[in-house]
């Protein structure tokens, strides 16, 4: 009997924000399984991957998370089918983030089935001035301070920096002395595991400028481990059992070990510092130092072999050796500083990578030849200039990835690329061709007339304004000398309050309360309307505006959203309660899977509410009944079904705390332009949703389907993307 594939992902709060690398990680494993060094994603899990019928990625060109929630009611199919959602960081080169770094070739309009690449893929230029390393650093040798990242570069590449909301609660190394070209270099590398909290450190290594190991320590994660990531980390459950060292111990030791002018070196060091929850002002990142075009990066393993002649991360070993990786990154930086940019550019790393890839393809071809797979003609074609991406690996196994869309997404030259002129044509081709392909990317678009930056700005303001109204309630009337403290206390039991003001324009005073989460505002309306507060029998209501006329419908649909199944919201918690305390208190609840305790993204303090996710919907219903009226540490709890768990609460918080810098006259102009086309836009979105529904229904069971709103990243600003995913199974109503 055919096994049923299954997808699991605990996407709550901060863990629901997925990077482009993590998306690539998922797609690569889904497409290749355990072949070609593909591994289970660190943030979700595919069960029985070998039984997947196929992978279909639907890309909604230049649409963002903003579009999904502005037209939430129109996306009827998407919100009812896809159980797993995540916020997606926007990318300047979205095709690269989908399937790896390619050659930036335009898709060739070749006949269907012909997957040749042009001989112009490889360009042998003797002009080093075109090399990205020379363009970035010049040709002359410089001291190490010329290669440390500036503050802006650190921010751009996701490094923890002082004053950043994401770095609240992080520990500074306090290495604040002025750097010189004689400052000491230290190599740093960490291995991580996946816990209920997210990525946590399990091993830390630090080496000095001579390559001597100063620190190689196992670290006990604070939260429950979901995946030890042993294939990469080399760390097992058994290894961590006797370990007593915690993250705070490592932070203290690093602060003591590093001199005040230390320069840290690592490969994609931002991830290590994030996991360590530490801020260091002076870093050299070898993934950026050995620059490539279009933001691509060489892998550490390749650089170590090509530049240093060293083999690291060998497949025979269980996981990576962080000391080995830290030493390799350090030596790469030292080589670059000592030899200078010109010598590094003369190595022609792109050509070396191409040669390595060709050798890999030849080996794979030789291994597969006895099984009757003939690739001789294909192998005679020059390979593209790219790092290993899973599209060419699919080619080796005789599978042709399919790309359908209006825009050129294919940067590998390997897909059956068909450029169509309308969403309807794209859908028709997809219905015909997707069943014939193991991996398909289908791109739909609203059309160029709806992608202008001024429309995005107006759309953003409308969504922000409506969310603000949904988070706001008015309560009253009260007596003239009512006690504001009593009002704040009573309404604070429903959830975290952002602002509370007295309305003086009315005959009797009213109070305007703006909450931080939708559930709190809804709970206040449901539980306090008609109640006696501060000596007055009050009415509780939301603002009455044209945009709020469908508020009740929207609230109901959010509550019925498939993502909210089995999730409840609990308010009235004391701020002194920790996540561990809550785990103990709620441990008696049946089938509790995950507890998420939101925190202020600026102060890092926990809010007085939490979300509970249960394995079964019925268990959530029973927990809801049990919790209402429950007293915890002297505080009475209130609860209801969740409306906006996971990625959405964080996005709401960010929108709610954003300050628009544009003048009012500009804003009104944008709003007017948006409203002129919004009716047509609603119709287009509804039709788009119908197209995806039709495509989804045509898919075979056990097909992984991912719908991506890529987000917007332009000179005018950026908007986060959104991903929805699930594995089709006709036996269930949702993925």
TrEMBL record:
Keywords, sorted A to Z: Exonuclease, Hydrolase, Nuclease, RNA-binding
Domain of life of the native organism: Eukaryota
Domain RRM: 471-545, 566-644
Protein name per Swiss-Prot or TrEMBL: REXO5 exonuclease
Native source organism of the sequence: Rhabdornis inornatus
Gene: Rexo5
Listed SUPFAM superfamilies: Ribonuclease H-like (SSF53098), RNA-binding domain, RBD (SSF54928)
GO molecular function, one term: RNA binding
Pfam family, one: RNase_T
GO CC annotation, single: nucleus
CDD domains to which the protein is assigned, alphabetical: REX1_like (cd06145), RRM1_NEFsp (cd12273)
